[in-house]
């Protein structure tokens, strides 16, 4: 019966979890802290730790709650969260389930703007390498904006005033709200795939507003559509101080919609003035050229060649004869020089003929052979003399020579040389080696 008083770990954990879940103060808590150990699962769920200087708590934010966020959480980021606190039964740890999250100290839209700007810049979407040139004299100008806003009115008035010959095609699009980004993307794709007159330049934008109202132009989908556009795009979003992601990706940024129209359309009066100026320069240049050619023609008509052509021809014929004679002389000199060079080369060739070289080589061989025989004879005589000298020295130092003078060597029966009386005993048999043979003897007495 005593064992029934003890709870299992599972039962205790469930009891604690129910206590947490039943506490209304833990169901809607507002907490601020710093994110660490952040990890986003492939399912979209986010797992992280929320901490301050003195404590920390595990936190989970499921993908259904994270879908509406404009920014991506990162380690070290300070955030404000709305969550419920409960116990995770498998580990027995208490943790927060986050329903809402926003940056602490900075707006979530501004943070999302900075994050996307950094991402796209690293991907190369802002690089000048990919910027397309805006045509100077467009035939057709496309406009993507709200058909009821002030921006379209300003753009149309400016283009009509500056460049009335341009064709204008309006692609209506939503420029504010959640459906604005897909609407802008669709309009850009439609302008690029237009089957009628091709669009030379495209103006994409709207009038001024808050960051929330301009947010459609900060969406990644809009940035990718602008980057992929084959038609050059001028962004015209808000006022001069407003900057959106679309401004950085577009081929050219205009400070205002009116400014975009001025960049897209040249001024007709300026063009006419430039045409008239160039026409005047062309007429002046042609007149100067005609006068110059007339002057040249007058000089040529007065020249010697036009006045006395027969005399000039006679002079040229005489010059031709002289040049012909000079050519003949030079040819003869050249032939004589070449013949002389040929003779020199022939003599050199004879000297280098193989038969001549063989003859010289044979003479060298005979001379070398004589020197070899003479040197070998001298070497043989020197070596023979050295040999006889060494033989004489060896013969003089030979022990046999010493023995011929009456000396002999004594050996024991084991063949050891006897050099002291201490090596023999009385009556021991020994062997005496003389210069002409050996004598066997017996020791009869030993005397120092």
What does this 3D model show about the protein?
This protein is α/β, with parallel strands linked by helices and 448 residues long. It folds into 4 domains: 6-105, OB fold (Dihydrolipoamide Acetyltransferase, E2P), CATH 2.40.50; 135-266, 3-Layer(aba) Sandwich (Rossmann fold); 303-353; 403-442, no CATH class. 48% of the residues lie in helices and 19% in strands. It has 13 helices and 13 strands. Strands 1-2-3-5-4 form a 5-stranded mixed β-barrel. Strands 7-6-8-9-10 form a 5-stranded parallel sheet, sandwiched between helices. Strands 11-12-13 form a 3-stranded antiparallel sheet. A hairpin with a 5-residue loop joins strand 1 and strand 2 (46-51). The longest helix is centred in the C-terminal third of the chain and has 44 residues, at 354-397. The protein is flat.
Number of strands: 13
The CATH architecture of the largest domain comes to 3-Layer(aba) Sandwich
Largest sheet: 5 strands, mixed, barrel
Radius of gyration: 59 Å
The CATH class of the largest domain turns out to be: Alpha Beta
CATH superfamily of the largest domain: Hypothetical protein af1403, domain 2
Number of helices: 13
Gap from first CA to last CA? 123 Å
Quote the beta fraction.
15-25%
List keywords for this structure.
448 residues; alpha/beta; OB fold (Dihydrolipoamide Acetyltransferase, E2P); Rossmann fold; flat
Quick recap of the structure?
The protein is an alpha/beta fold. It has helices spanning 9-22, 63-66, 108-123, 150-162, 180-192, 220-228, 245-249, 257-264, 268-301, 304-307, 309-351, 354-397, 399-404, and strands spanning 29-40, 46-51, 56-61, 78-88, 93-103, 140-145, 167-172, 201-206, 233-237, 252-253, 409-412, 429-434, 437-442.
């Amino acid at each position: 019966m005593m064992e029934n008083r003890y709870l299992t770990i599972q039962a205790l954990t469930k009891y604690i979890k129910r206590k947490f879940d039943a506490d209304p103060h833990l169901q809607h808590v507002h907490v601020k802290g710093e994110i660490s150990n952040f990890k986003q699962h492939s399912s979209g769920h986010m797992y992280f730790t929320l901490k301050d200087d003195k404590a920390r708590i595990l936190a989970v934010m499921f993908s259904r709650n994270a879908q509406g966020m404009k920014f991506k959480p990162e380690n070290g980021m300070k955030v404000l969260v709305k969550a419920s606190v409960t116990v995770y039964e498998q580990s027995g740890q208490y943790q927060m389930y986050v329903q809402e999250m926003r940056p602490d100290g900075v707006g979530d839209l501004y943070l999302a703007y900075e994050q996307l700007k950094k991402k796209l810049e690293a991907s190369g979407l802002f690089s000048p390498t990919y910027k397309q040139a805006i045509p100077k004299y467009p035939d057709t100008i496309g406009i993507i904006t709200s058909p009821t806003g002030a921006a379209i009115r300003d753009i149309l008035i400016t283009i009509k005033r500056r460049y009335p010959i341009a064709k204008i095609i309006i692609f209506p699009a939503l420029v504010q709200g959640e459906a604005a980004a897909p609407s802008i993307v669709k309009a850009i794709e439609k302008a690029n795939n237009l089957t009628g007159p091709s669009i030379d330049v495209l103006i994409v934008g709207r009038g001024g507003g808050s960051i929330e109202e301009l947010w459609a132009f900060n969406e990644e989908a809009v940035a990718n559509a602008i980057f992929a556009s084959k038609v050059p795009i001028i962004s015209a979003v808000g006022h001069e101080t407003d900057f959106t992601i679309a401004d950085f990706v577009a081929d050219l940024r205009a400070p205002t919609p009116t400014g975009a129209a001025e960049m897209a359309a040249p001024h007709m009066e300026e063009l006419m003035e430039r045409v008239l100026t160039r026409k005047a320069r062309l007429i002046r240049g042609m007149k100067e050229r005609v006068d110059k050619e007339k002057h040249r023609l007058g000089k040529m008509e007065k020249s010697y060649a036009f006045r006395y052509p027969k005399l000039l021809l006679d002079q040229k014929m005489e010059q031709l004869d002289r040049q012909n004679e000079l050519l003949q002389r030079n040819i003869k000199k050249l032939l004589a020089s070449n013949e002389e060079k040929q003779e020199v080369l022939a003599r050199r060739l004879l000297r280098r003929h193989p038969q001549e070289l063989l003859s010289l080589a044979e003479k060298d061989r005979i001379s070398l052979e004589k020197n070899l025989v003479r040197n070998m004879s001298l070497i043989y005589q020197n070596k023979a003399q050295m040999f006889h000298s060494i033989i004489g020295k060896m013969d003089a130092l030979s022990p046999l020579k010493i023995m011929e003078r009456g000396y002999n060597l004594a050996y024991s029966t084991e063949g050891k040389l006897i050099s002291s009386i201490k090596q023999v005993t009385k009556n021991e048999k020994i062997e005496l080696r003389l210069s002409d043979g050996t004598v066997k003897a017996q020791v009869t007495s030993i005397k120092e």
